Amino acid sequence: MSISKLRAECLPLGDYTLRFECSELGADFEQKAAQELRETPDVTEPAVARLKALLAEEDDLNVPKDDEEFLYIFLRPCKFYPESALKRMRSFYEFKLKHDRLVQQVMPHSVERPLKLQIITILPNRDQHGRRILLIHAGRRWKPSECSLDELYSCVMLFLEIAVSEPRTQIAGVNVILDLDGLSMTQAMQFSPSFAKMLLHWVQDCIPIRLKAIHVVNQPYIFNMVFAIFKPFIKEKLRHRLHFHGRDRGSLLEHIEVKALPTELGGIMNLPPPPADRMIELLEAYEDIFEERRSQGYRRKDAST
Closest Cα to residue 13, out of 262, 269, 258, 274? Predict the structure, then answer.
């Protein structure tokens, strides 16, 4: 997804506005990039040149190899180490090739059901560190009979496709809040070890994003059964970024300031549920970009060759 094509569309949410950003970084983000990602000209220029050279040898990989905005999507989370960026890029597109059925659903018209159930949204305010916040209501709002686990996953992928194309999000990263209020056995039974392994491989090894924290809130006792499925596949880095808060709002507020959270999570934002039709319209405004992104990746080899 080309950053220059990321238009500043917006969605009013009460007194707040969800706006996908394509603006300049600003001094604060430039400083964060320099301090945390080594993003200074003496590092970035040779890193970009080296990654271009490495990609020139990747004959089967169809990506915009000379588009520096695109290359930054992979270089920033890898702190401008070009070999690491190439490894992440390979993993990302190998995942896409292997799980093509899921990836082909990463389009606004394919994830209308989770949007209509208001399961997933991006909060309008960034946190005190400049991070995006993705809120997932995977408890009572999720009805597996109306929205499959695959649809839910594809919807998460879609939101993160936009997030990784925001320069400020590339630098500051993302927090995920997983609200499990009302999680039932019906929902818990949707998860399998194979799904957990696939999801965590995507999160930990593939997607080019700085996942700074996962905050689990309102989890009932049955969550322990679900977490036991995922636990064997969680690497040490992610394990340290997992936080379990239950219904302790003070615990969550130790990590995210009140200005960035809705009132039901202990914050001060009085947010109405995002209107499903308007959210779909907002995402459809980027449909041409999603189409372009779907065309990228490894070329399928003819099975007969």
Answer: 274
